[in-house]
Backbone:
């Protein structure tokens, strides 16, 4: 079995990525053979190796492809979303995480701890995700949606912890209501917005007096006539 007649190289690659996601999710990384993925995609082992050099490379490539597809679907649903709204939209999906992407994340994280062939590509993948989120945070800060004092890298790391953690704590283990989760996310985003300056008091400024009137001297009060000429002026710190 080789390349399927009438199917382009790009289409073959997509078939392999879809098949890999399904087989890895069903059998796990260690329980999957390259031949299993090739058979599920309807191609030969040689056709698979023409696109991917190893099972580890295929795992991370499938993870990357499904992540892109998820983001693309969110953009298509509402292309005018602001950066903050996009982050919220991604966050709202986390409590319902029983999808191939979630399973792939778990398999890749576990495999990366045991197999350096997976660990290297996974470091690259996680770095790409962190950079993408940090760039999105930077856009939100530039638009005045998020506090510019926050570190985009720290916010990105927080989002990665939420996203990858949600792949481990699936709804069948522990669930939470969609409305409760959405309310919590909104509170978190509100806490990350620019802080308003403290309200100014309407109390008059004690120093706002005529130029020839000392700041600590009541208005219109006459100077004592018998005060010695060499007596020092009261220090402003004296009453503190």
Residues:
């Amino acid at each position: 079995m080789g390349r399927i007649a009438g199917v382009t190289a790009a289409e073959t690659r997509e078939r392999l990525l879809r098949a890999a996601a399904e087989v890895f999710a069903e059998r796990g990384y260690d329980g999957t053979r390259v031949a299993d993925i090739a058979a599920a995609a309807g191609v030969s082992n040689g056709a698979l190796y023409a696109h991917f050099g190893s099972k580890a490379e295929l795992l991370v490539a499938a993870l990357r492809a499904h992540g892109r597809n998820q983001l693309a679907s969110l953009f298509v649903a509402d292309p005018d979303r602001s950066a903050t709204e996009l982050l919220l939209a991604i966050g709202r999906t986390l409590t319902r995480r029983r999808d191939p992407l979630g399973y792939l994340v778990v398999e890749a994280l576990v495999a990366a701890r045991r197999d350096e062939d997976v660990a290297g590509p996974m470091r690259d993948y996680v770095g790409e995700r962190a950079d993408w989120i940090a760039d999105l945070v930077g856009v939100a800060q530039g638009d005045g949606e998020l506090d510019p004092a926050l570190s985009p890298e720290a916010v990105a790391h927080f989002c990665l912890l939420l996203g990858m953690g949600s792949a481990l704590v699936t709804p069948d283990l522990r669930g939470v209501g969609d409305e409760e989760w959405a309310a919590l996310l909104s509170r978190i985003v509100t806490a990350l917005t620019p802080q308003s300056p403290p309200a100014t008091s309407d109390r008059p400024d004690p120093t706002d007096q005529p130029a020839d009137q000392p700041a600590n001297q009541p208005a219109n009060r006459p100077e004592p006539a018998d005060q010695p000429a060499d007596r020092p002026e009261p220090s402003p710190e004296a009453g503190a």
The radius of gyration is 31 Å.
